[in-house]
Amino acid sequence: MKRKCKHDKQFKKGRIPWNKGKKGLQTSWLKGKKGYKPKHSIEEYNKNNPPWNKGLRGIQRGKNAPNWKGGLTKLSVAIRGQIDIIKLMAKRKKIDDYTCQICGKRGGDLETDHFPVSFAEIIKKYNITNIEEALSCKKMLDIENLRTLCKSCHRKTKSFGRPRKRKNDAREAVKGGK
Ligand SMILES: [Zn+2]
Prior knowledge:
This protein is mainly α. It contains nine helices and two strands; from the N terminus they run αααααβααβαα. It has helices at about 5-15, 40-50, 55-60, 70-80, 85-95, 120-125, 130-135, 150-155, 165-175, and strands at about 110-115, 145-150. Strands 1-2 form a two-stranded antiparallel ribbon. Zinc ion (ZN) binds near residues 100, 103 and 153.
């Protein structure tokens, strides 16, 4: 027995196909209409809206990172975004049993800090100017020179930098890293 599709009924009831009565191949409605211009061409759109990942290459892949021209804070943000550093910091947190090394609070919002040699000191001492140099610097990747801190203790450290400006740093780093 042939199965009837329930849409069959509906269709027959009164829907008229869009091309009813028009024989042959239909062409685009705007074909031949003079003066039609799309408001924004794709090229124009792309020009005004660069791809979301434009300029991010340096942050995502250290080895391809261009020479760094931004400031220390921007460099810091970019380096902290490197997968090797992220992995290292995760390892450190595990070693510290996810416990803040200052107040002893366990869990919560944890961060890692370069200590006793601060991040800024490493940059200065080893004359690091780009991500590549940072990733080949042993001190930067020394797990013994890291400590786990809770967010509020990290904020109180001298090496933390300017917390108020941090929100925009990532975006600025992208611009600077072009
Ligand atoms: Zn703490």
